[in-house]
Amino acid sequence: MRFTRHHVDPAGRSERPAAARSTRRRALHPVVALAVVIVGASACGSDPGSNSGAASSGNTGATTTTAGNASAAGDVDACGLITVEQAAAALDEEVLPGEASSAGPATTCLWSSASGPAGTGVTLTVLPAAVITTTLEVGNANGYLIEPVDGIGESAFYQVPETSPADATLSFVAGDNGYTVFVNDNSMSADQIRAAELQLAQQVAATR
Length: 208
Hints:
Elements: H1 30-44, H2 60-75, H3 84-91, E1 99-103, E2 106-112, E3 121-128, H4 129-138, E4 144-148, E5 155-161, E6 169-174, E7 177-184, H5 190-205
Antiparallel strand pairs: 1-2, 2-3, 3-7, 4-5, 5-6, 6-7
Helix pairs in contact: 1-4, 3-5
């Protein structure tokens, strides 16, 4: 398996064609979708007559840990991990207060641009750490490339769509939880997007 070690080189902000980057909020990022699958599989593998969270394989320790991590991720206030000022600095424009949502074990907060095109904003998702480590172990798959990043949490990487490099998402693990940071702004280059995501991820990691 071949990974590309990513070095962030912040570049100047420049106008880019709207077609180069999606202006829509993605319905469910692959990392978040995997979180739903993992927890769903854990639930389906449980024996209703046994202790809660016990898998049919009998490996109750692993299943209990996964369920516990999912619960911990769901209890985290994603909107409390990035301030409005930090989100605004990442986009270099005013943003609205964070809007919370959830999908399975994942909790998400979106800070939308106050004046930019629809979809412009910062998204932070908190999910079980196992989801991030599984994504890293799977590596390049399903049209996404994995680019490891040093210096954030216990492990970190960019997940980059092969057909849309500017839609890269930065994910990392800190303790029992995993985190993904996604910056969407058509006026920023791919390098600027990654640099902004890196800055936000470092700010979140510093609090964990």
